Amino acid sequence: MKSALIVYGTRTGTAAATAQEIAEEFQRLGVEVKVADAKKEKVESIDQYDLVVVGSGIQMGKWTGEADSFLKRFRKELKEKSVALYVNCGSAAEAMNVGKPEVAANAREKYLEEKAARHGLTPVALGFFGAIYDFNRMPWIMRKGMEHERPKLAAAYRETAPGVYDTRDLEGIKAWARGLVG
Ligand SMILES: Cc1cc2nc3c(=O)[nH]c(=O)nc-3n(C[C@H](O)[C@H](O)[C@H](O)COP(=O)(O)O)c2cc1C
């Protein structure tokens, strides 16, 4: 694999940070990589890439419109390519759902497997990654709901800035990226 495109849609930056981590791992392994924010940059063609990775953050059970639009726009071409999908979502934060494995299982099915099927894709890999919770920026109604979860977040995950908890497994993301190159 010589070249890869990573396209992402994000609302609060998590899928963008994840795209960067995947890109760094690709570059480290000698793969030429282009990263595109689907909202800011219109990808004109995917012909030149050996692999296309499409990712999105999840809110209210939904991908971002722009990442979804990318899948629709290149539906035909993507069927002929190696494609990988990933999501960043709260349901993947295991320590927040202890004893409730169905939360992650259902989310993986809905956000990744059903999404791929709906676009007629058979991805080479599905990446189910955690969330970044930013208490400074989340809607107040969500902050109210999440406040009682905050000690659990603080105990289990990195607080990368005051009130910002990163539940992603960075090593897991890098290992996933390596698997795509291998
Ligand atoms: C308003 C709001 C709604 C959310 N809804 C969901 C959801 O339905 N399912 C889920 O697993 N995570 C949900 N989350 C957690 C996000 O997926 C998480 O914050 C993720 O990091 C967002 O990715 P992004 O920054 O790339 O958009 C929600 C977060 C917010 C702020």
In short:
This protein is an alpha/beta fold and 182 residues long. It has helices at residues 14-28, 65-73, 75-79, 101-118, 140-146, 150-156, 170-181, and strands spanning 3-9, 32-37, 51-57, 82-88, 125-129, 132-134, 158-161, 164-166.
What report would you give on this structure?
With 182 residues, the chain is α/β, with parallel strands linked by helices. It has 2 domains: 3-131 and 170-181, 3-Layer(aba) Sandwich (Rossmann fold); 133-166, no CATH class. Helices cover 40% and strands 23% of the residues. It is built from 7 helices and 8 strands. The protein has helices at residues 14-28, 65-73, 75-79, 101-118, 140-146, 150-156, 170-181, and strands spanning 3-9, 32-37, 51-57, 82-88, 125-129, 132-134, 158-161, 164-166. The strands form 2 sheets. It has a 5-stranded parallel beta sheet, sandwiched between helices. A 3-stranded antiparallel beta sheet has the order 6-8-7, covered by helices on one side. Strand 4 (82-88), helix 4 (101-118) and strand 5 (125-129) form a beta-alpha-beta unit. Helix 1 (14-28) packs across helix 7. The protein is globular, with a radius of gyration of 16 Å. The termini are close together. Bound molecules: flavin mononucleotide (FMN). Flavin mononucleotide binds at residues 10-15, 57-61, 88-91, 107, 131-133, 138-139, 142.
What is Rg? Answer: 16 Å
The portion of residues assigned to helices is 40-55%
Which ligands does the model contain, each kind named once?
flavin mononucleotide
Q: What is the count of β-strands?
A: 8
Please identify which CATH superfamily of the largest domain we are dealing with.
Answer: Flavodoxin domain
Instruction: Please give the CATH class of the largest domain.
Output: Alpha Beta
Strand fraction equals 15-25%
- CATH third-level topology of the largest domain: Rossmann fold
Shape: globular
